[in-house]
């Protein structure tokens, strides 16, 4: 499905019945990436899976991208499909988008799982962003990008340029403790202890600032520790959390 939102065409799927569950992919990814985590949609949820602006099948005519604008897009999409409140999982850039949503309109997010999403970009991440190029990706990753992003080479080049631009932007990803303290959602923060972009100490900063938060550090976990061998534990833990099982303990 396609919705005209804020000057873009946002592609999205809505499937299943139950509590609305929003899945936000990572930077340079697409909504279809969630099939690697959930080969079948989790039962008991109405799953909402968008492509962020400029990603996947979504467009971005302006060429500009901020995570805050992506959050405004998704909030507008929820309005369009008549969803007042959601549970959500956000991975990396999708997690940053989710933090914006949870601080812009706290009442809209009932509970959320935020994976490998920092409150700010530390120096080590900015150094990687500043020199980022498609050549830094493996051949398999490059082929995957071409499958995800249906608008061709120009779309991919723009996503790479936007990633380099993050290195010099200090306003968009700047979640201070007072701002994070406004989040009302039950929040599970997930970080790998071998994340090459963000030191694991950032996870503790998030946990200290978000009032109703839980922290899961994945041993030997990389950036985005939800794929491959980490998938079964993540699915079991995240779905139990979002169903509210932890509240009964």
How would you characterize this protein structure?
- It contains eight helices and eight strands, in the order ββββαβαβααααβαβα.
- The chain has 249 residues and is α/β, with parallel strands linked by helices.
- The chain has a single domain, classed as Rossmann fold (3-Layer(aba) Sandwich), CATH 3.40.50.
- The protein has an eight-stranded mixed sheet with strand order 1-2-4-3-5-6-7-8, with helices on both faces.
- α2 links the parallel β5 and β6.
- α1 packs across α2.
Can you tag this structure with a few keywords?
8 helices, eight-stranded mixed β-sheet, alpha/beta, Rossmann fold, 20% strand
Question: What is shown here, in short?
Answer:
By secondary structure, the protein is an alpha/beta fold. Helix content is 33%, strand content 20%.
Please tell me what the overall shape is.
globular
Percent strand: 15-25%
Helix content: 25-40%
Taking pLDDT < 50 over at least 5 consecutive residues as the criterion, the unreliable ranges are none
Main structural class:
alpha/beta
Biggest sheet, in brief? 8 strands, mixed
Order of helices and strands: EEEEHEHEHHHHEHEH
Distance between the termini: 39 Å
Helix count equals 8
- For the record, what CATH class applies? Alpha Beta
Architecture in CATH? 3-Layer(aba) Sandwich
Number of strands: 8
